[in-house]
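Assess this:
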Amino acid sequence: MYICCECQVEMKCNKNGVGADFGHGHVYAGDRYICSVCGKEIIRTNDSANHDPEYNQCKEYLKIKERKI
């Protein structure tokens, strides 16, 4: 179960098969959850990456931005 910290309600899955794409086929498969109150979304991914260079194993891909430190 995932809870929205801001709204304190359970988030609901609104799409299965979303890949978190870290580039060069480095993909974590997951599902997208949304808060029914504020609309914030999260992706819950698997714990291990999958090599998906053709980007054909998930229904949708979310390109993950590089974090600047």
